[in-house]
Amino acid sequence: MCFNSFFFLFFFMLINYFFFVYFIMNGLSVFFEWEIISFNSMSIVMSILLDWMSLLFMMFVSLISSVVIFYSKSYMNSELNLNRFIILVLMFVFSMVLLIISPNLISILLGWDGLGLISYCLVIYYQNLKSYNAGMLTALSNRIGDVMILMVICWVMNYGSWNYIFYFDFMKNDYVMFIISFMIIIAAMTKSAQIPFSSWLPAAMAAPTPVSALVHSSTLVTAGVYLLIRFNYLLIDMFFFKVLLFLSILTMFMSGISANYEFDLKKIIALSTLSQLGLMMSILSLGFPDIAFFHLLTHAMFKALLFMCAGVIIHMMNDIQDIRYMGGLSLYIPLTSLCLNISNLSLCGIPFLSGFYSKDLILEMVSFNSFNLMVFILFYLSTGLTVFYTFRLIMYVMINDFNLMMIYNLYDEDYIMLNSMFVLLFMSLLSGSFLSWFIFSYPYMIYLPFNLKLMVIYVSILGSILGFMVSNMGIYSLNKLLLSYNLSSFLCLMWFMPNLSTYGLSYIYLNFSQILFKNIDMGWSEIYSGKGIFNILKNYSVFYNIYQMNNFKIYLFSFILWFMILFIFFFI
Amino acid sequence: MFFFILTNNNSNKMFFLFILFFSTLISISSNSWFGCWIGLEINLLSFIPLISNSKNLLSVETSLKYFLTQSLASINFLFMILIKFSLLKNFDMNNIISIMMNSSLLMKMGSAPFHFWFPNIVEGLSWMNNFMLMTWQKISPMILLSYYFNKNFLIFMIIMNLIIGSLGGLNQTSLRKLLAFSSINNLGWMIFSIMISENLWLFYFLIYSMMIFMMISLFFLMNMYFMNQLFINNMNFFIKLNLLINFLSLGGLPPFMGFMPKWIIINFLLINKFYFLTFIFMMTSLIIIYYYIRIIYSSFMFNYFKMKWVNLLMKNNMSLINLSSFISISSMILSTFIFM
């Protein structure tokens, strides 16, 4: 099953690649329409849009998913129901492909809901309590986005067609489009985990590692960015884009800080994904959709690789994900640590790896165009923080002393996992340059002063020095977190947003319902309906019994009495 | 019924039973009021030997009490008839004399406010005699009631019947007294139905007597007179189901047979805007269903009280029990196929 799906997806990727090259060289885009049913004046039509953006994205998605399926043959080999897992992953890929190729809100909804549902099934795959909680958080956060898209479908019916690409840039100033754009932005924010909805992404790391590599690094979380790229011509002058800018750079900043406090390997990588998503959203909201798409694709490559290396390390550490137990691995597992290091450095933006092309271009565009001071500071600060946590991670995992057990077995020769990682390694080295030559037919004009150009390098060096110093632990190291406990807990727990969106939302209602239940259900309504009426009736019955238990002559006398009473009473 | 009398090896009772039936027919089919009174007297005279058993002191006392109340009522009835003949020559029904006549008939039936003898006497009779008292003895007073009644007075009596029937039964543990109070309550429904139409009263009365018969025969077969005897013996599942269904049917719960007559009466009430009376009918029904369910609720629980050393063999009579359960459950729905 694994091999079949791997080969199928790999050939699908090659087909997409050739079509992509042909389409982008000739400037083609193809629109298929399939009329399903036509009845009087109503016709149901399924449409598919193939232009270079969707073909490129499909190529990347199928590449990553084929590699991940191949990887999971060895990673999940002790799983009894591996077929079920592979089928879930394939359904996920199908939903993603449906989302990518659709110019039509209904098929976007199908893909979007499919993504949400299948990611829920994949997150709860291990079926323990933590997975269930994580799955619920993931599903409910994504559900908000689904509701938003459903409402967009309702509002868009004003325009007579669900194929948004035909009319949305003609109707930009309409009140209806205003509401639609608001809802689309909220939907994209839930899927891509921006600030109000960002608590699900670190929690979703309870999923198996191949799922994290496919879903939470490159495909699910980028669906929101992709939707906004498609809707870009509509949204580009609107007020909501400024709100999105603000929230996404705050997301970038917050997750960069929180990743510095984390000790769980997958959570660090999740928070770094969140940071890069914030970067993508912010450059999109500044008005550069093609750069955002470029960064989306290169990020997918090295993040998936990073997750797969993390999976190998977790297997080796006897399923422990805490980095304080790891150390010195670069000496023992050279090939895996090669992949890990290259993907980490690509994430930091080290020159001429793939991440450099997209990240450096983003930062130079931010410096070249005139944006305000806060945007500038937070961008560069987040870049520095990226390098900071990356170097901290490298120090903890690769360089410091090994902390697990005295007897250990670090097995690097699992060539199934390694071969899949090598494919992504090749892509993560070369995809930066390769994509920049394809996508940008002419380069962007950037003219910067010398120190501003080197600002990236300054913050990177600063971040690396800080990362090195923070991870130097000895026997006598003081736990500095306790010295600034309040601030540290605020920064470490993602600015308390997971608590706000889970406990904070439900606390009021649960408290209120407890008050209602205690006072009304078990209180007054018992006196007025249940027990109270029973007591009244019982008293009446006891009172009646006094009349019933009597001598017989009293009965006979009472008959006469009643006769006289009724006689007098009705005489009138 | 004859089967049970024959088992007692007493053919005198069959003779008196025949006279009892005949006396009711005399009473309801006579041309003049005097003939009605004669029928009522023969009724009294023939019922007394049925219930008295000289070997049992309680039964003798009961028959004496019955004789006293019924003869008082008959005397009143005769006197009021004579006053009506001599003083009033009209056909108008809603006057003072009709109140008097109705009062005496109500005393004959055991309806409130003249009902105090009824639970007492029911306590002293056996189950089959109770059955006769609760069903057959009500026929002639009710039909006589329909010939000359005072509407306002009767509605007042109905309300009193309903309330006393429901409230009085809450504090009882004897099954006979419980059924007596439920009979008083059902008298309220029956008096109202006879004010509407005699056909409706017949319908209600037949269904009521059928349900009472099923229940009383069940209690008779198991020889149960008190509530604490209910589940000491090990009834098998079908007997418990039959008990459950019959009690719920008597209370007027929908899919069972006993709902149908009450439904028709409520329909009439609502169409003619008797809203307050509807309310009283409903609420007292609820109280009655409460104490029925109090009797039977442990019969439909999975964990029930079971004593291991008592074994009840009811193999001979299972067909009757099954038939009665079937009738109670399905007859309302089947009747829609036949009549509507």
Please tally the helical runs of chain B, counting DSSP H or I stretches of 4 or more residues. 15
Strand content of chain B: under 5%
Low-confidence stretches of chain B: none
What's the count of strands of chain A? 2
Task: Output the radius of gyration of chain B.
Answer: 20 Å
User: Mind describing the biggest β-sheet of chain A?
Assistant: 2 strands, antiparallel
- Number of DSSP strands of chain B? 0
| Helix and strand composition category of chain B | mainly alpha
- The low-pLDDT segments of chain A are none
Q: What is the share of helical residues of chain B? A: over 70%
Distance between the termini of chain A: 98 Å
Q: State the secondary-structure class of chain A.
A: mainly alpha
Percent in helix of chain A: over 70%
Q: Average pLDDT of chain A, to the nearest integer?
A: 90
Outline of chain A: globular
The greatest inter-chain interface is formed by: A-B, 21 and 26 residues
Mean pLDDT, all residues of chain B = 87
Helix and strand sequence of chain A: HEEHHHHHHHHHHHHHHHHHHHHHH
Structure commentary:
The complex is a heterodimer of chains A (572) and B (340). In chain A, a hairpin with a 2-residue loop joins strand 1 and strand 2 (42-50). Chain A has a two-stranded antiparallel ribbon with strand order 1-2. With 572 residues, chain A is mainly α. The model of chain A has no long low-confidence stretch (mean pLDDT 90). Chain A has 23 helices and 2 strands. In chain A, 73% of the residues lie in helices and 3% in strands. In chain A, helix 4 runs antiparallel to helix 5 and helix 4 (105-123) packs antiparallel against helix 9. Chain A starts with a helix and ends with a helix. Chain A has helices at 2-26, 52-75, 82-100, 105-123, 129-156, 164-167, 175-191, 200-203, 209-230, 232-235, 239-261, 265-285, 289-316, 334-348, 354-368, 373-399, 415-439, 450-453, 455-470, 485-492, 497-528, 531-548, 552-569, and strands spanning 30-39, 42-50. Chain A has 2 domains: 1-473, no CATH class; 523-571. Chain B is mostly helical. The longest helix of chain B has 31 residues, at 57-87. Chain B has helices at 2-7, 11-28, 33-51, 57-87, 96-109, 117-124, 127-135, 139-147, 151-168, 175-196, 198-222, 237-251, 259-271, 275-296, 318-339. The mean pLDDT of chain B is 87. Helices cover 74% and strands 0% of the residues of chain B. Chain B has one domain. Classes of the chains: A mainly alpha (572), B mainly alpha (340). The A-B interface holds A 537-538, 540-542, 544-545, 547-548, 550, 552, 555-556, 558-559, 562-563, 566-567, 570-571 and B 65, 68-69, 72, 76, 96, 99-100, 103, 107, 113-114, 116-117, 119-120, 150, 152-153, 164, 167-171, 287.
